[in-house]
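Supplementary Text 2. Reproducibility record for the structural model of the 551-residue chain.

All settings were left at their defaults, and a single model was retained for analysis rather than an ensemble. We include the record here because the model underlies the residue-level annotations in Supplementary Table 4.
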Amino acid sequence: MKLKNLPVILILLLLMHKSIAGINPPDFGSKATINLKSSLSSLHTCSGSSSPVKDFLINATDISSIVSIHATKRLEISVNPNAFDSNNINLYPVGNSVQNSSIYVRLGANNAAGIYKDTIFITSSEFDASFIILTDTVFATPITRFISPSVCFGTYIHFQDSSSITAGIISNRTWYFGDSTSSTQINPSHSYAAAGNYRVKLSVSSLSGCLKDSTAIVSVFPSPRAKIAVSNSGCANAAVLFIDSTSLNGSVLKTWKWDFGDSLVKNISTDQNSTHTYKNHGSYTISLAVSTDKACNDSTSIGILINATAITPVVTADINLCEAADAKALTVNALPGYSLIWYQQAIGGRGFAEAPIPSTAVTGETFYYVCQQNNSSGCMSERSKIKVTVNAVPEKPTISRDANNNLLSSVITGNQWFNNISTIKLDSVQIFKPAVDGIYYVQATQNNCKSQRSDPYQYMVNATNNRSFNEMVNVFPNPVINDFKIEYKFANNSTVIAELFNINHVMVKEKVISSGYSMNLSDNLSGNYILRLVDCKTRQLLYTCHILKVK
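Retained model, structure tokens:
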């Protein structure tokens, strides 16, 4: 705008203000006026519109110069009659260089509802100013709000419309749920066919036709499907494993709650997979409630039959075995309809159908355990214990002779005496005095384990052989380790020949001796020998006996 027109504009604005206040249109002087005709006399718009609300045409004729267009806007009904809508006081010409043509004017939006007077001034340097007054009615636009909580899949979302309007009445509303469905109810309920995020839009319109939309994202969280699996048969006094087999459907489980249904005081577990032992047989209802990290819940329950405990097997008395002896498999009689399962420990461990064969390699105690399993229900009994003791075999005993000419075993108890191969009926005595000459053995028995037989011991009831009143023979000691002495007295001889034969009747020694002679056997092998005393002159056999050489 040129500065030379500034005084004119100020006058026009002053006159316009008076016109808006209800005064007659201003007098613009003696200049010729522009011939104006508007295509509109009034406007109807909605508050809060961000785009221009109306275009209209002003026909201007007899214009031979460039014109300027100005506008004012005044709220017709207001507490303050001089209040102006400062946000939308301008009009927007399509072009401001107009000559002998029509003028297009675009009005801006109004924020507040009410009735306005829009005054449009057209001025030039050659003509008096002309103006057009339009009545501009701005209807209230609804304020659209709604509550849309997120939910778990499978449940309804209850939408709540909290829209309002400052003036007028809300006449229509339409919900668009983001899944190609809609509703015109005020507070509709809606369920979705799948979990996910949905953009929900609410469109609200007033009786005046003012429309407002509002959108929000609604989350439908995936929900689990609770399911219980049982890993083993249900038996009383045996742990049953319950497994969470819930279908997640994209969810993440956070909590579990089990109710095993066997007590007035609820038996609860919060583990994902849980074991439980029922004391009594019968039918029970097991419940599982699960919850996700989004608080989506589900629950389920199943029935389970708990069978009675199997009958405990009857075992024999403790078993005693001998070291290094042959052993047989343990035996227990199973009841009809039952099978035996063997264990090496009282609780837990791996069971075996075949009975174990105890090892006799090492002395000591070993415990074995056996239970019965019901072939129909699969329930097992408590385990019975079998103690197997492997006893040491007694050492091989030795025989000696005491001062009273008794045979003496090196083992205190459990002795069995033999004369040659015949068993002597004695009560496990350590000291034994034979009644007849012979070769004697002893064997020790402890914990039913028998030792090896001792080396043979030759025993003569009388070490002195009284041949007559004036004759005798005394051979001692017998058994002999290195030396034994020969004492004798014969009526007609003072010198005899001593002959020593082995058990194969081969002579190993021969010596002319006198009474009191000591024969050395240190170079001879252990075993039985035969001693013969022969008359030197007549070669008559005077005496014979068995000699036992020991180490």
